[in-house]
Amino acid sequence: MSDATVNDAAKTTESTTSEPLGETYLDKFPAEAKVVRSALYSSFLALALGGLFGVIQTLHRTDFLRIMESETYYTVLTAHGVFLVIAFTIFFLVGVFTWAVTTSLDREVEDIRFTWAWLGTMTAGAAMAAAAILAGFTDSLDMSADVLFTFYAPMQAHPLFYLGLTVFVVGTWMAGADWFRSWFAWKKENPGERIPLPTFMVLTTMIMWYVATLGVATAILAFLLPWSLGLIDSVNPTLTRTLFWFFGHPVVYFWLMPAYMMWYVLLPKLSGGKLFSDPLARVVFVLFLLLSTPVGIHHQYLDPGISEGFKFIAMTNTMFLLLPSLLTAFTVVASMEHGARQRGGTGRIGWLKALPWRDPVFAGMALAGLMFAAGGFSGMINAGMNINYLVHNTLWVPGHFHLTVGTAVALTFMAASYWFIPQLTGKKLWNRPVALVQVVLWFVGMTFMANAMHRAGLLGMPRRTAEPQYDGFEYEAGVGSVAELDAQIALGGIILTLSLVLFFAVIIGTVLGSRSDEVPANGYADTLSGPEDSPKILDNLKLWFGLAVVLVIIAYTFPLLSIIERGGLFGPDITAFPQSIDIVSMAWLTVEQYATDTFTSATEVAQATIDGVLR
Amino acid sequence: MRISTEGLLIVLAFTVVLVVELRTVLAWFNLELTVFESLMFSVALIVAIVVWALFPQDGSRDTDASGSS
Amino acid sequence: MVLIVGIIATITYGTVGLGIAMVDDEEDTISPSELDEDERFSDPRVEQVGENEYEAYVVAQTFIYQPDPIEVPEDSEVTFYVTSRDVIHSFSLVGTNVNTMVVPGEVSSVTAEFDEPAEYGVICNEYCGSGHHDMEGMLYVVPEDEFDLTELSVTADDEVELGDDATFDVTVENGQLDDLETAIELEVGDETIEEDVTVPGDDTYETTLTVDSTDLGEGDHDWTVTVDDHTESGTLSVVEDLEDDEDDEDGGDDDE
Question: Which of A225-229, A310-314, A587-591 has the lowest average pLDDT?
């Protein structure tokens, strides 16, 4: 267990870092560091591609620069969504989780080959899905997956897309198994000990993930994949949509939990103090485990075929999800204040000045947390059943999630990278001022973009469209004009791109640098109120798992049954768009034909040989 | 310098948020600024902050502002 | 905690108290491949169902809405029934809270009140394919006196023999519940025939107007039937000798 850095931090003056130097993660766990590094590099690749597609579509939809046909916009949008929210976030978090488990249990992974195996599986899956999406850019391949991140049937993607997603998710399941395995082994050696907080966070998050991915696994394996292969003719769009959101909401917490973990275990340390309360942190993660999944229907307030009662249950659960987030806000700010006061900060507001703002890791995370507060408020608006009518599927929604996943998560991850990459490479951060400018630019860029997106959404401007300019009518802007909003979105997009470029400059600069012994020691924040203060029941993962399942059953059994009762398992004769069935089944036939031919000729050859031998 | 360069950067970042949101907020009070007006206002505000930050002070007093971090 | 319960209570009041109905599972399912046989959706339209109450049956498909434009009178309460022929769309009146997903196999129903004449853009805000951004329609809320649900159709001879009567079978359908007092006016060549009619609410009036072809003379004659703002037109040929095949086809083109 690492120590907090209270006194050292207070003494540190204008030196390079406020953290003590010492044994890095690379020194301690060289093999694991390699895995984590690979995971992070994969995520950065996804971030680079996703970011590139992001700026292309920003300029396209605001009509500042259109370098492609509007039809292609949707391929770009699919790639932007899937690369960023699936590949970037999840590759990053498996790296962080591996760091958290090994560091906090202070033990190596049980079998490094297995660890590589799950990372390999995830990479293979991501590559398959990416190939299917990117093939949409060329007409020479009869393959596309322009179905966006939500892949609502009857939109159909190439089977490779669904298969890739499945393989990717299976990889994450294996990763979870790896961490549980570490914990079981650790528990055997340390009977009766409390689960260290970071490991606790990983395990609860993974349980949530296992429960949540059941939805998407069912949707893909039972319906969408066989359908795209032409094995079944039709699907029930409401059913696959509901199963998607069964997964689609908890997945946002899957992205957010690692960011929360960073705020809980790194931020207090960086601000020079301790985590305010260990029990509170555990409560928060347990609440997320319990409440993340039975809320998915709040994405379907406007769906026909789902009764108002089910929607109301989802809303109630959603509102209670505010609780752990509000608790987090409180705990994290309290921890930061504690740190600041340790550093000599005084006054009611004055302590803010004593925070280590020049540290890009701290500044990035703090700014991300702040934006998350704004995102949380717009999220509450989304979650209200009635007001949702006004904003559903408008640009308000992307405005909201660019604050949450696009800043709270992405900016935290980028800031955390400035801490992790030195840990994993033993190299000093290439340029701290540039890194600081980078995180601040992200904050500023997102301010412009998200503000304008929210406002445009209130005017009714739709999301997910290449050309939000219509022939028949014009939007009535309450304040300013649509042109201004477009300009603001484009400006934000450009600043964000610039920020990304700087991010990669810093990362590449760091990686290409040489080993340094000025890297701070590996570790995480100590707590003011430790695990000894938290009730033992909090560590009873079986109980929470059971409860989570029960809540999911309560929230989903009846909606799912009613959807199946209404539309049938396979829906009322739904045709796929675009129809890749024909192509695939034709390809399948060709393969079959080919196989049969080969087999026949092989038999003939064999027969001839046998005949020859016999003679 | 009254505050550190980094501090100034952060303060300016927050100013951007303030300025971007201000137009909407003022519209609530029926005070509609044009883009040009709000641009002018923000430039003025930023210049004011920068001038304030760069204004030399007699270093003897102040201990917490520039010395932090 | 209290705060959260408070929020839920507020929203519940805001929803139930104000009588805002959610899109829900009240409507029966429908097979998207059988829309053409469906009583409501085979002919997407607006129908009056009560005083100031209307129902609009709308079909969304890649990448249009039917009917388009939708026209409803001011001071009305309109329930939209929307379904999809293919993929998931939405039916969203820009800048209002009339906004619903449109899922194939399901019928979404949304009720809205329109107090004043206005124009609303109807857009699809759920990605529905490569032409998604072109999917738009219009909703016009028109002053009451400009609104009707009258449908006019005319079946007329193409050709008549000089001396015979040319017949025009006129059907006026009144989709509104109030009686429609109007006049049917037929202009053919230089002849004009007018007939004052009263079409009962939600009913159809049929009449046959005849013109002596001798009055018209030999040759092609353009004709127009007008009822209020609705017109049907075509061309009648008066010939010396009718060839023996009995062409009795619809001479009107459906422009209603």
Answer: A587-591
Q: Which domain holds residue B50?
A: 5-55
Q: In this predicted model, what pLDDT tens digit does every residue of A424-441 receive, in sequence order?
A: 999 999 999 999 999 999
Q: What's the number of CA atoms in the CB half-sphere (13 Å) around residue C164?
A: 14
The model's pLDDT over A177-216, given as tens digits with 9 standing for 90+, comes to 999 999 999 999 999 899 999 999 999 999 999 999 999 9
Q: How many separate domains does chain B show?
A: 1
Q: Tell me if B32 is assigned to some domain.
A: yes
Rounded distance, CA A55 to CA A391, Å?
24
Min Cα distance A75 → chain B (Å) is: 32
Q: Is C137 on the interface with A (CB under 8 A)?
A: yes
Nearest Cα residue to A237 out of A150, A295, A129: A150
| pLDDT for residue A114 | 97
Does 1.10.260.30 match the CATH number of domain A6-579? no
How many other C-beta atoms can be found within 10 angstroms of the C-beta atom of residue A18? 24
What CA–CA distance (Å, rounded) separates C23 from A386? 11
Vertex A600 angle, CA A595 and A601, to 5°: 100
Judging contacts by C-beta atoms under 8 Å, the chain B residues touching residue A14 are 69
Domains of chain C (ranges plus CATH)?
Answer: 27-146 (2.60.40.420), 150-239 (2.60.40.10)
Q: Kindly list the distances between the CA atom of residue A311 and the CA atoms of A100, A493, C98, in Å, as whole numbers in the listed order.
A: 37, 35, 18
B5/chain A closest Cα distance in angstroms: 9
| Position B69 in a domain | no
Q: Is A463 a catalytic residue?
A: yes
Considering only the beta carbons, identify the residue of A440, A448, A478 that sits closest to B10: A440
pLDDT tens by residue, A120-145: 999 999 999 999 999 999 888 888 89
Q: List beta partners, residue C53.
A: C50, C77
Which one is predicted more confidently, C246 or A356? Answer: A356
Q: Is residue B31 part of a domain?
A: yes
- Give CA C221 to chain center in angstroms: 30
Lowest mean pLDDT among A33-37, A173-177, A292-296, B55-59: B55-59
| Confidence tier at B67 by pLDDT (50, 70, 90) | very low
Q: What is the ipTM of this complex?
A: 0.84
